[in-house]
Amino acid sequence: MKQVLRWQKPRRIFVGSMTDLFYNAVPDEFLDTIFGYMAVAKQHTFLLLTKRPERMLAYLIDSSIARCDGRGETARRIDPRVPLEYLSWPLPNIWLGVTVEDQQRADERIPILLETPAAKRFVSIEPMLGPVMMRRISKPAGERYPWGYDYLTGVEYGPYHCNRGMPRLDWVIVGGESGPNARPMHPDWARSLRDQCQEAGTPFFFKQWGGRFGKRAAGRLLDGVEYNAFPEVPA
Fold first, then answer.
1. Domain that holds residue 71
2. N or C: which end of the chain has fewer CB within 10 A?
3. Is 181 inside a domain boundary?
4. Secondary structure class of 99 (helix, strand, coil)
5. What b-and-e string marks burial along 7-25, b requiring 16 or more CB atoms within 10 Å of the CB?
6. Spatial contact of 153 and 200, defined as CB atoms under 8 Å apart
């Protein structure tokens, strides 16, 4: 992480792209150090992706004096000039995301992500192994009003209310599985996510089709279009 302090030009950085920082065996003290460096290197945007949103939520809402002091002391030790108010969570240059593969994982992990305080929240549906609907709304038999939640717009539907302005996803990434035993991704699954994002105004990034020979062979055009949208980064 020390090298991020030498990079003056703003970058978008995936942290631990080949691992999961919130794996249970990773100690909180190590996370304190990572977050300390990210706090100091505020010119960059850091993206953290996990399959363990429960651990991420628990770590980031831990308001104990020891935990908060651990993050703050690490950052101030790296650079004493870091203002204390900048260390309050959520840090504006850190985006948090979860990996999902299908509807079951989406409904398990996305609600926990939406509970987690973050400047930006995103989901990486890669490998995509089934269709995923971001609007989980239904009208049970005998009920007059719909129930559910729209992950993309932050609208919560209840029997007697419709709450707007609730937490929502800021970005959706979609991609197929790569490798010798790659499971195929149906084009309609990717199209559906694209259409849902366009309707909600959510940035959509299509990473690859995947397959046995990966992105280079299968490409990353969806219906002839390359989708590279990112959320806006505040100045």
1. 11-106
2. C
3. no
4. strand
5. eeeeeebebeeeebbbeee
6. yes
- The torsion angle over the Cα atoms of residues 81, 22, 171 and 85, rounded to 10 degrees, is -20
What are the pLDDT tens digits along the chain (235 aa)? Answer: 778 888 889 999 999 878 899 999 999 888 888 888 888 888 899 999 999 999 999 988 875 545 555 556 666 666 666 665 556 678 889 999 999 999 999 999 999 999 999 999 999 999 999 999 999 888 777 777 788 999 999 999 887 788 888 999 999 999 999 888 889 999 999 999 999 999 999 999 999 998 765 566 678 999 999 999 999 876 6
φ, ψ (nearest 5 deg) of residue 162: -140, 95
Beta bridge partners of 157: 148, 162
Residue 51 placed within a domain? yes
CB 94 within 8 A of CB 38: yes
The answer to whether position 30 is within a domain reads yes
Query: How many structural domains are present in the chain?
Result: 1
147-150 and 135-138 strand pairing: antiparallel
Q: Which residues pair with 149 in a beta bridge?
A: 136, 156
Q: Going by C-beta distance under 8 Å and a sequence separation of 6 or more, which residues neighbour residue 30?
A: none
Looking at the domain assignment, is residue 67 inside a domain?
Answer: yes
206 sits in which H/E element: strand 204-208
Q: Which H/E stretch holds residue 100?
A: strand 94-100
0.70 cut: is pTM over it? yes
